[in-house]
Design a protein that fits this description.
By secondary structure, this protein is mostly helical. The protein is built from nine helices and no strands. The chain has helices spanning 2-43, 46-53, 55-77, 79-82, 87-108, 112-135, 144-164, 167-193, 205-231.
Length: 232
């Protein structure tokens, strides 16, 4: 009986390890896609700027924003559909390309120094938070209700900052958002790694990749916005 239990545990650990490897492989491809889209934008070539500000470029921007919202809802809410191959991969690929285009648009009209600083800071923070989520004994997966409350509070604060149009409030909003999305990275990483109260199923690699990718992208965007507000 004990031998069967150990065999089952080893099998589950191997499955979880394969799941983690798949998620981070997909995530790496997503990050590479964003980098490839952003390089011409950071270079700020005249052709790139002309295209982004053209009617076609702006149409792509609004379409990308709409698709990211729709696809994030589909991936999060319709797991039976997303788990099918190639449905999940197609949804995630389109979502990634749309996010990459939005990020490239933001980078095109930001200081290249700020973009590089934000990218370096994002890599450093993501790495540190991932290691912390892996090593810590604290279980962040049971704190989802508190995290949900923080999200609602952040959204309300964003509306407040938009109405008042205060540079100080923008800086405060960015700082708070960076902290909250840092917590998101820890939360989602523990869901992926498993071994806590809650964890993602091994068939949810598309959802896992999207969640972690979204956390990293929002963290980068808020860092870029913060640097722009501070250095302006």
């Amino acid at each position: 009986m004990e031998g069967e239990y150990k065999s089952l545990k080893c099998y589950e650990e191997e499955e979880r390890a394969g799941f983690i490897a798949k998620v981070y492989s997909i995530l790496s491809l997503q990050i590479i896609t964003v980098i490839l889209f952003s390089i011409p934008a950071v270079a700020s070539t005249s052709y790139c700027i002309y295209f982004l500000l053209s009617d076609v470029g702006l149409s792509f921007l609004w379409i990308s924003i709409a698709l990211t919202l729709i696809l994030s809802i589909i991936i999060y809410c319709f797991q039976s559909f997303v788990r099918r191959v190639p449905h999940g991969y197609i949804c995630l690929a389109v979502y990634t390309v749309c996010e990459a285009y939005i990020v490239s648009f933001l980078c095109a009209f930001s200081d290249p120094v700020n973009v590089m600083m934000a990218a370096i800071m994002t890599v450093a923070l993501t790495t540190a938070l991932t290691v912390y989520a892996w090593k810590t004994k604290s279980d962040f997966t049971v704190k989802w209700s508190a995290i949900l409350i923080l999200c609602v509070a952040l959204f309300m604060f964003a509306l407040f900052a938009c109405v008042l149009r205060s540079r100080f409030l923008v800086i405060m909003y960015c700082c708070i958002a960076i902290i909250i999305y840092g917590v998101f990275i820890i939360f989602d990483t523990q869901l992926i790694l498993g071994g806590k109260t809650y964890q993602l199923e091994i068939d949810d690699y598309i959802l896992a990749a999207m969640l972690l990718f979204m956390d990293i992208i929002v963290l980068f965007v808020r860092l870029l916005q913060l640097l722009g507000a501070v250095r302006s």
